[in-house]
Design goal:
alpha/beta, Rossmann fold, five-stranded parallel beta sheet, 5 strands, globular
């Protein structure tokens, strides 16, 4: 069965670091060539911000890292932004809330280690 996966920011970074913290199931799903793997522009934005603040060591060339790992960037559109407004305030991180909204709107499975995101009822694969 083909999966359409949306990587949480930390999952993307773990993937680039040769998967030291990824569960076997999540790593296999991302590696499976039949699956489509996305990274939200919200995650890219989060990495750039945290990198500039010295809180994160992000890849120097994110577009190249995406292409080399057959990961498709997922733009944020109006339907995603509107969907965030309908989410209950179960999680305070605006980047994670956007990922939940995008996964819901686009019918994606969110790959994350953050168990709090399960409370939104979005399809998740625990990393």
């Amino acid at each position: 069965m083909r999966l359409r996966l949306l990587l949480d920011t930390h999952v993307f970074l773990w993937w680039l670091a040769d998967r030291p913290k990824l569960s076997q199931e999540a790593g296999s799903a991302v590696a499976e060539s039949e699956n489509t793997v996305y990274l939200s522009v919200a995650s890219i934005w989060e990495m750039v911000i945290k990198s500039a603040l010295g809180k994160l060591d992000a890849p120097s060339d994110i577009p190249e890292a995406l292409a080399a790992n057959r990961i498709t960037p997922l733009p944020i559109d109006m339907s995603h932004a509107v969907a965030v407004a309908s989410l209950p305030l179960l999680h305070n991180d605006p980047f994670d809330r956007m990922l939940v909204a995008q996964a819901q709107v686009e019918g994606l499975t969110l790959v994350t280690r953050d168990r709090r995101l399960l409370e939104y009822g979005v399809a998740c694969l625990l990393a």
